[in-house]
Design a protein that fits this description.
3-stranded antiparallel β-sheet, alpha/beta, 314 residues
Amino acid sequence: MVGVAAGPYRSYELVELDTRTGRARVVGAAHTDAVDPAYYPEPRVRTFTGPRRPGDPRQLYPPRHPGFTGPAGELPPYVIRAHGGPTGHAPLVLDLEIAYFTSRGIGVAEVNYGGSTGYGREYRERLREQWGVVDVEDCAAVATALAAEGTADPARLAVRGGSAGGWTTAASLTGTDVYACGTILYPVLDLRGWATDETHDFESQYLHGLIGPFDRVPGRYKERSPIEHVDRITAPFLLLQGLDDVICPPAQAERFLSRTAGRGVPHAYLAFAGEGHGFRGADTLVRALEAELSLYAKVFGFDRTDVPALEYRT
């Protein structure tokens, strides 16, 4: 048998299993990992009680570096990561993007919020017509629980995500006061535009189940859209966008920014030519990660002279 496999300490690999002997061997990998495993994030599988259902699954990655620990008596900052999909899943698999932050003193929590696949149909159905509500509530419940139990610094919590996770991030910044900042990647920001002519055919009917039929609940499309509530944003944010994105087009990001301008909230915008929905180029990936770290350094109050400083608008 041949298949793709991964685990908490192994990234995705093509593996061959001999069913007669039970022995497995790797026959292909995306890259040769030069990262010392001492820097790998150490996952902890946790459950937190959300406002609508107890025991939702989360993956917690505390800060980890072989040569450093945090200052005595100081709680670490944490980033809440909302996965895309939104009916996707954050797997318990080695992710070097997470290691990038945990090795720099920033904890990460991946939230498989209500609607995520892998936990049965009832769990998936929690997001039906509740996108922008359940996902936002579940992420906030994790953040506040980490702060309440003394794992994370309540004043240094961030939220981030791409695509549907970008939507959840933007909706979290407009709908809660939990986070000190956020990183929004190639997001959905305007449901009415996305439901009509601002995405491709495959995604165009997705909102019928996530929000409701547009002709039946048009007011819900407006009320849930982060672009309609930019006046509620008080936390700094970073917006990252591919200029060739046909799923979440840059036009939405630009409208969002135009409504944010002049409100006094520091924000930065990086747009990448040649990038679509989900970044692919090595230079883009590096710049995006460095920009995200720069945001956290500024907001959380530590120096990172090894990454370019962001230019903020207000």
